[in-house]
Design a protein that fits this description.
Blueprint lengths: L26 E16 L7 E6 L6 E11 L2 E12 L4 E2 L11 E8 L2 E9 L1 H8 L11 H7 L12 E9 L6 E9 L9 E11 L2 E10 L15 E14 L4 E13 L4 E14 L2 E14 L3 E13 L4 E12 L5 E11 L1
Antiparallel strand pairs: 1-2, 1-3, 1-18, 3-4, 4-5, 4-6, 6-7, 7-8, 8-9, 9-10, 10-11, 11-12, 12-13, 13-14, 14-15, 15-16, 16-17, 17-18
Length: 346
């Protein structure tokens, strides 16, 4: 699947390889990540403008270690521990209170039959969201990321973008078809019905890519905590479809999303979508995206968000960018966020 640097294209390796006389196994460990910093003004709908230096303009900064050991017969033991951080203040996590290794922390097995891992995983639904919009996983300039993971006035996904206590399976590639499934336990006595599960099905051949994603969540962070979000809130179902086509001179992306909140006494659901474009210009790309979401039921809200930007590549590992976002929600004053930043991978 073609992505806009969701996975670093170039990393610096810190690796140890050895050959054991007994097992003849090879083991490697890789250090990788990215640092993203921007300066500008951030203004949420209905809020005040705040100027400053912040982390993660285009993508949240993170670092991590990934390793594998060859067990023979095309089977490898693998692990990954990866954590977000904010470079402007040196704090661990993508927000205050976030776990140290909140991006990924798992161990598992890779073989010809797929990859099976256990621990904490970035959810397949999050990956589906960020792969099919020009601004990737920007929590500042990506309209669909704001609508999906930073919903306001009742809108937005619950359950976080990373799931603790989860098992995930990723299939091999079958002629361009690939699927992922994930299940997360509540890990509390007497709460076997409290869980999260979901998955994706994708198709990627030539210049065309498609993905379908679904997840059901019955708790946010710990079992039965959805009632703290809204009284009587018991579960949420979310579905998404995304597609892209790269013409070379222009890459188009599109997404549709549906969310349903099960709330006693009257639920709510939302429909929305995103359209985006990326145009190569010089050593960089011009970016544009628009997202719309309408919630009906016990909560009624409409949100329109658009953004434009330019991302210039100094090298394969370092780029600079400038972007502007306009965000409008029913009953609130418009929010405007703009700034310039730099991102580098290692």
């Amino acid at each position: 699947m073609k992505v806009w640097r969701y996975v670093p294209c170039c990393v610096a390796l810190t690796a140890t390889a050895f050959l054991s006389p007994q097992s003849h196994a090879q083991s490697t460990v890789t250090l990788l990540g990215q640092v993203d910093q921007w300066i500008g003004a951030k203004e949420l709908p209905g809020g005040d403008r705040a100027w400053g230096i912040r982390g993660g303009g285009m993508q949240t900064s993170w670092w991590g270690l990934r390793g594998q050991e060859d067990l023979g017969n095309n089977v490898k033991a693998i692990f990954s521990v990866e954590g977000f951080f904010t470079a402007n203040d040196g704090q661990a996590g993508s927000y205050k209170g976030d776990a140290f290794f909140s991006r990924n922390a798992y161990v598992g097995v890779l073989s010809d039959y797929g990859t099976l891992t256990a621990g904490r995983h970035t959810t397949p639904y999050f990956v589906s969201t960020v792969l099919f919009n020009p601004f990737v996983d920007s929590y500042n300039f990506s309209p669909v990321v704001l609508h999906t993971f930073l919903g306001l006035q009742g809108q937005g996904l619950v359950g976080d973008s990373g799931w603790n206590n989860s098992i995930q399976y990723q299939s091999p590639n079958f002629g361009g078809v690939h699927f992922t499934a994930i299940y997360a336990f509540g890990n509390a006595a007497g709460q076997t019905g409290q869980n999260k599960w979901g998955g994706t099905l994708s198709y990627d051949v030539g210049q065309f890519s498609f993905i379908g994603a679904y997840q059901q969540v019955k708790f946010n962070f710990v079992p039965n905590d959805l009632s703290s979000v809204a009284p009587g809130f018991s579960s949420q179902q979310a579905a998404q479809a995304g597609a892209s086509y790269d013409f070379g001179f222009l890459k188009l992306t599109g997404q549709y999303q549906y969310m349903n909140d099960v709330i006693s006494g009257g639920g709510a659901h939302s429909n929305g979508g995103q359209f985006g474009a990326s145009v190569p210009i010089g050593a960089g790309r011009a970016l544009a995206s628009y997202a719309y979401t309408k919630m009906v039921g016990s909560m009624k809200t409409t949100r329109n968000t658009w953004s434009v930007g330019y991302d210039y590549n100094f090298s394969k590992r370092t780029d600079v960018y400038a972007a502007y976002l306009n965000d409008r929600i029913t009953g609130l004053s418009s929010g405007n966020t703009f700034g310039v930043g730099i991102r580098t991978y290692f």
